[in-house]
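Weekly puzzle thread! Below is a chain. First person to post its structure in token form gets bragging rights.
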Amino acid sequence: MDLEAWSRQLTEWKMKSVIVLQGQQFIAEWHDRGSDRVGPLYSCTKSILSALIGVALDKGFLTSVDQPITEYLEHPVEISDALSEITIKHLLTMTPGFDWPDFDKPYKTFKQAADPVRFVFEQPLISEPGTAFTYNSGGSHLLSAILTKATGKTALQFAKEHLFDSLQFRSARWMERAGVNEGGTGLFLYGRDLAKFGLLFAMNGRWDDKQLLSSEWVQQSTKLHHRGLLQYEPPIYGGYGFHWWHSPESHNGHVDCYFAFGHGGQYLLISPELELVIVIRKEVTKRNDAILSRNLIFEHIIPAFK
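Winning reply:
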């Protein structure tokens, strides 16, 4: 696939990087400035955090996704009973029940809060955990705090020790507050390193004859757990797994796949059937401009391999 022939169109769509792997090979690559560089993942960060939760489970730092979050996080005593109904799994599937208006509207206020964990706990609980999907970066931050409490390390330290170093990442920065890396965003990587993370999932958690992440977690975390935003138009999202989006062929018209998605049209998409890993990095414009990234994937890249 010759992405250079698409250079003018990719530039008009304000793409920054397009990287395609099939099998274990980098087969197509394009960068607006000619070479790969470190950039923000935005909410693609969430899918990497999900993998770190899986590693923590594999290694016994966490016992189960069904553990109540109150086992790890300091919380207001007066709402302890209600919070104890919320599990790690509820955070992973964006179904903890907090009042968190559509598309992360409380995020700016949450980000400015002196104590972001307490800010999340101060939001009313308006639905039974496990029922209603509300996209909630505050819940993702709770996961990062749980990981740090369970392991004694920040998410970035834990990631370097158990994933990033083994994958030979060139660089990794992760925004931090009060000793906790942001759970919902804040990670900066090279595009190629993000692609290697996707390849780890495409290979069911195995890398250089070493199982970095259990295949069970790969399957469990990327399957459909909630319908999420399958009905959203334009169709830039999908159903939801454990901090991964899930898009069946019936939704996208081409192939079963799952993906990490970041604000403005950042994608890390894996198609197990086609053995494809696709990274799209795009300049952030309007939210729904992410349809340009989606169209590039499903109308041009994937058809080229079917």
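Puzzle host: Confirmed. Bonus trivia for everyone else. The CA atoms of residues 15 and 282 lie 4 Å apart.
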